[in-house]
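Data card: per-record layout.
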Amino acid sequence: MRRVSGPMSGTPRGWTAAVTLAAAASMSVVACGESFVASGSGGGGAGGTSETTSAATSGGNGGTAGSTGEGGGAACAAPASSACADCLYTSCEDIYCACVNEPACVGLGTCLNDGKPVEFCWQQNADGIAIAGRLQACGAQKCEACSYDDVPPCLDCQLNNGPAEVNACFSSGDCLAYLKCVDDCGGDAGCAQGCGTTYPKGQAPAGNLIECIKGSCVAACSN
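The structure for this 223-residue chain is written out next.
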């Protein structure tokens, strides 16, 4: 069965290793930002695939948002598009509806479906990255019809616990380049310091993501 890589496929090689190493070397522990779905609201968190958001928005108005459910995620209309979308709506409803209700998540899927570069799509739809990725993770586990690639545990933890940090870093080319640069340094402190000089705008969002890992995802990112 064909696998769908999804919007998280454009991450530079080894970037998760870089933030894990940096987290282990740091001393302070700071918790992540807002959690994926805020209690009592339809707010949302992680990223999905181009086919995820396509499934959510194709087939007429099958993915059109509905009213907000009481005390939980935002409700949305049942899709009328595909077996994949039907499964996502049934098995991953809160995340699916969060994506449908977030223009940037839908925009991310449209951008990827148009064949544009992944990092460009992230930059243009920053607020939808974490929602889309989380939907990809849920679909990979529960919806065989979608054929989504699995999301690694470390990234999955960040999508759930630090969506704002993920969005800020993934939508910044400097942040991703900085993390890859640090990873390529192989633990050389002088080399890593040079990465900060080369990508100064990437240090702050990368640091926030590292703090998120230290506060919530050490175990998931240690393997």
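Known properties of this structure: The beta strands are 46-47, 65-68, 74-76. The first helix runs from residue 15 to 25.

See the next section for split statistics.
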